[in-house]
Amino acid sequence: MAVTLVALAYPGMLGLSKVATAQDRVIANTQWGPLTEQDRDFVVKVRAAGLWEYPVGQMGLQKGTTPGVITASKHLVDGHAALDTTCRKIAPMLNITLPDLPSPQQQGFVSQLKADSGKKFDSDFANILRMTHGAIFNTISKIRSTTKNTLVRALADQANNTVLDHMTVMEKTGLVDFDQTIFQQTTPPKLPNSDLTPPPPAPGQPEVVLTPPPNATSTPVDINGIAGGAAAASPGASPAPTAG
């Protein structure tokens, strides 16, 4: 049985926002279980997170001034490359449209860190990334405990391990201001939906790929093992430009 052919509208609120619509509404019935709005939004959120945290990890390898920041940067690149592979594998199987750019809010984080240098970069790097990973960590637990879709559940397992690792390495930098970070994490600024939503991919453009580092230690989910022959039969991405 193939994925039910329905139009999956591009998510209206992503990033760090909380969607106000009925997130448990089933938008597709697939051979891997029903797909809800929150399932779909979660896959897009994981993809969008990698689209800005992966380049920030590369930035940290160049601009970081402490061993802790360098280590955390390596974990960002490694972990998000593996998550990206899983997202791009399951998205066509579930008929989910993935972004090729992060949200304007997330792009703002990148711009801020590009403008930083020295100790200011190290501090902002650790605190911004600890805040954003802490925010999505709660989302992951909700998805993992409620989704009925096998592929989404597998992504949530991988994301849980990756995000916990990234939170931990940020804390190990010794630079996290927990009072400030947790306040920002639990009371995010009220931004318009347009700032929180990754733009849809441009028609006809190849999909952006986050390239694993040569010494990668993180591995994508074995989707073929979960889905069997259906994974191999699903449509794949066209040759794509890489990031990194």
Q: Mind explaining what this structure looks like?
A:
The protein has 244 residues and is mostly helical. It is 57% helix and 5% strand. A two-stranded antiparallel ribbon has the order 1-2. Strands 3-4 form a two-stranded parallel ribbon. The longest helix has 29 residues. The N and C termini lie far apart (37 Å).
Summarize the structure.
With 244 residues, this protein is mainly alpha-helical.
Write out key terms for the chains shown.
single chain, 244 residues, mainly alpha, two-stranded parallel ribbon, 4 strands, 57% helix, globular
Please state the CA-atom Rg, rounded to the nearest Å: 17 Å
Strand order of the largest sheet: 1-2
- Main sheet, how many strands, which sense, barrel? 2 strands, antiparallel
Task: Report the sheet-strand fraction.
Answer: 5-15%
- H and E order: EEHHHHHHHEHHE
- Helix and strand content put the structural class at mainly alpha
| Parts with pLDDT < 50 across at least 5 consecutive residues | 1-20, 235-241
Task: Quote the distance from N terminus to C terminus.
Answer: 37 Å
- Choose one word for the global shape: globular
Q: Can you lay out the helices and strands and say which pair or pack?
A:
Layout: E1 26-30, E2 33-36, H1 37-63, H2 67-93, H3 104-115, H4 118-146, H5 150-171, H6 178-186, H7 193-196, E3 209-210, H8 223-227, H9 229-233, E4 242-243
Parallel strand pairs: 3-4
Antiparallel strand pairs: 1-2
